[in-house]
Amino acid sequence: MPRLGSNKPVPPRLKLTGIAAQLLVMFLMLSTLVYGDDAATPEPQSKPSEYDQLLARGEAIWKKSCVECHGENGEGVELIYEMALVGDDTVGQLTEVIEGTMPKDAAEDCVGEDAEAVAAWIHHSFYSEAARLRNRPAQIKLVHLTANQLRQSLADLYGQFGGNIPKDDKRGVLAEYFDGSNRNKDKLKVKRFDPVINFDWENDSPGDDIQSEAFFVHWRAGLKVEETGKYEIVVRSTAAFKMYFGRFGRLFIDNHVQSGDKTEFRKTMTLLAGRVYPLQIDLYQRKRKTEQPPVKVSLSWTPPHGTEEVIPNRNLVPVMPPATFALQTNLPPDDRSYGYDRGLAVDRSWDESTTLAAAEFASIVVDELWPDYQNRHKEEPNVNRARLRAFITELAEVAFRGPLSDEERQFYIDEQIAATEDDALAIQRCLLTILKSPRFLYPDLDRDRSVSQQAANRLALTLFDSLPSDTALREAVTKNELETEEQIRTMAQQMVNDYRCEGKMLEMLFEWLNLSHLGDIAKDSEKFPNFDQALVADLRASLKVTLEDAVIDSDSDFRQLFDADSVYTNRRLAEFYGDAWASPQFAIEDAEAVKANALSDPNKPARAERPPAKSAEDYFGLIPVSDFVKTEASAPYNHGILSHPYLMSGLAYSETTSPIHRGVFLIRYMLGRTLKPPNAAFTPLSPDLHPNLTTRERVNLQTGSETCQVCHAKINPLGFTLEGFDAVGRFREKEGENLVDSTGSYIDRNGENTTFNGADDLAQYLSGSEDAHRAFVHRTFQHFVKQPIAAYGPNRLDELMEKFRSENYDLRKLLVEIAVIAAQPTTSNTPASREQTSSTSSPNSAPN
């Protein structure tokens, strides 16, 4: 480019004529007069800032002393130091590490300003999150359905014909009692809600005007499931019965004709969180010529990570939910290398399992959905098997998350139907091709869909782990009512109140607390008698109910998870953990039980299991079940989840506490910080070898070296704050003869050091900590969207954090905002956005 004011000719592409040329000449002359010939000469670059000089100095030290062990960009060197240098320490923390440990065997060579310079350069170049995003911008990955998304999608694909279950706060079982051994509506004597199914009528009648030797009981309910996994369903009955499950009419256990002395029936199946499964039991007591056996019946289950129990009242909804489908095919685990499930693996086991899943689904469609569809459309013409084509089209359009093209209709429907005259075989062929298609398995392959359809697809995937089968979503797509951010937000606000979204949120809280990694919790039976698996199951259930309460509460506040003024307890927990876990409700129940016994037949001996009910007649024969009672939390258990015994006992050894486990949990999961893996596994020092030391002192002794302190300087001070809770989560002030020291500290992302004096201070800090809020928001986004948040914009996490704060830390509103972000089209993985990410991530001043 020529300088302004030079005599070089103007290039042809800038040749101007007339007034424009005259104006340009005048401007050039004026600029020469005013500014001189060098007016446009680029100004000399300013001198490097102090921070730039610091980085240059650090880079020189790095290349001279560090590359040999760590690689050019901190990627690691095989057989020397293989771990990449990445993390979230401040520059100040990195400086301390370098001064104490680097270079290897010569740490004294890099101290003071040299250590600070190389720490700043490492932090700026590749170590910090901003540097990593600048060097390798996050992108939205093309992924297939995860195992849970596949299960949920097939459940909703099946359920599209039956509608959704409305929310219901009532709990229990719809019960009808008939005189006589069949369901004759003229002989209906009792109609009510039973709290649970757990009765022992002996040889009595179950109600007024009902014969004891011949009666019929009809129970119906929805089984509300909170956690995905294997459930063993157990029915015990001395009378004949039939049980239907998943659909009224789908036989699950058939004991209509009793054989021998068998009274216990078990069946295991996979159930999905956030689903309400139709449940029906018909019980028959028939007259016999021989001696009439006593009638006793119960409905129990063994949930994941639990022990067998009568299905609690809180899991029974007295409604008639629509039929649903639960896939039983085993699916391979998903990739969790980034801390959340991602559908990345495409291998033989994934291919085989998705084929088996498609075949299983096709079978249930042939047996149930197709006959229902034919019955509903029997008056319509069926020329050229039009009815079958319409049926498959409805399934295909939901599975493909949008309308079919002519080519898709030809291949997935017409060709498969034409291949066989057998409708069942035609359905199987169609569904195998549809459910194995990338259109179904890869939800992101929908860029050719309308804006509203794409938004609906992502809303369903984000909030339900599923596809858009709901009437409201599909109608909004048809009317193009999901095009604006506000329209999407309005729909998301409705969806977060669905059982499915609540189930997904509850599972997210399980992941946030890392409950799946606690494993089987066992303690030394001599030191902690009565700490058995039944107690552990109750502890887990208590924590689960606490979390569920936080999710369901319309005014849910994240901070209440640490500030809770209540606990969920039962008799077993109160007996083990003492008065702090007792409830006044227990005394009321005891009084009612005594009253019920007094009102029972005086010719029979008093039975402790007589029901606590309004009167002896209301639920005669009901065996009470100890369910959880919400009661006021007493100190020191008034710190919500933080002081819950399930968490404290899980983060401990069989005999002693483990400040290290508790510290790692706090720093990784509660505060969202990174820790490098330990150099080697080690066995904790035995208390027997150091009988006069507390656990805190033994941990300090074992982790006191400089290499250990690189991580344990962060871990130990946090873990020590929970030393007031022993290995089973009971509060203590002494360990043996020594006073417990629960003081600790934490250095946040900004380098600020906060000290604590026990769990109370820590809970208060976590409730208001920006690091804790950031960690929770980040993990919630990952769990629901299953993509990196930075791929949706370099400032998305900060924007969500601000929304979270402004909405008083409301969990449901957080989900709505996450869904709005995920549902809108994004260009964050384009080169332009990467340039923006790079410029945004580049620091203008020295970090801490």
From TrEMBL:
Pfam family, one: PSD4
GO molecular function: electron transfer activity; heme binding; metal ion binding
Stretch forming the signal peptide: none
Domain Cytochrome c: from-to ranges: 53-181
Biased composition (Polar residues): 826-836
UniProt keyword annotations, A-Z: Heme, Iron, Metal-binding
Superkingdom to which the source organism belongs: Bacteria
Biased composition (Low complexity): 837-848
InterPro entries: Cyt_c-like_dom, Cyt_c-like_dom_sf, DUF1585, DUF1588, DUF1592, PA14/GLEYA, PA14_dom
Protein name, entry field: PA14 domain protein
Disordered: annotated span: 826-848
Coiled coil: none
Organism in which the protein naturally occurs: Polystyrenella longa
Domain (PA14): residue spans on this chain: 168-315
